[in-house]
Amino acid sequence: MEKFRRRHAELPANLYRVQYPGCQTALSGNGLQAKETNVTYTEDDMNAFRESIIKQLTWGHRGDQPYITCFSEKDHAENWACKEPWNHGEYGNESWSLLTIDTKLMPEAYVFSLKDLVTQLDLALPEMASQHVKGGYLCLHRIPTTAIVYSASAREVKNDVEDRKWQETYHPLDDYSGSDLEAAENNWNDDIMKMVEGDWN
Description:
Elements: E1 14-19, E2 26-28, E3 31-33, H1 46-56, E4 67-71, H2 74-83, E5 97-102, E6 111-113, H3 114-121, E7 136-140, E8 142-144, E9 148-153, H4 154-169, H5 178-197
Antiparallel strand pairs: 1-5, 2-3, 3-8, 4-7, 5-9, 6-7
């Protein structure tokens, strides 16, 4: 496993962990802990190593695995969490959270880039997992509580996502000048009035 481990200097500054009901990773006062914390793999165990990674990324077919799955991109983590795929399309109760992990505070951790593993081990992942290859990371066994620097509730995450969508849809007036600025102000005010009057489609 050592040769697949990302060097500490190569890790992104932050990783993001979605902690949701029923997941195999436990969150306690000691930090995050995978379901299995004793297993490691040697050069002679590469087939077992490959199989464990595939199981980690296969819904409903994991068994006890030694990994904690994280994202390197906050937007990706938020979008995935807001879909609540663990609820299988049913309405969720928003009892999940998004944890921000400072990788500088976990220098001893074994962290693997999913993209590296797929390339170097020639892994064939389930289709649903392929979207996470680029920014996915697997942390072995544990993440200490000292490395978890922020926790956002589901409602906080959803509010942030909605705020960004609003800002992306309605461009700041600073982007305009002259007659374009006047037109943008008029459109902005018209939209606000529609919302106030309940005439918004």
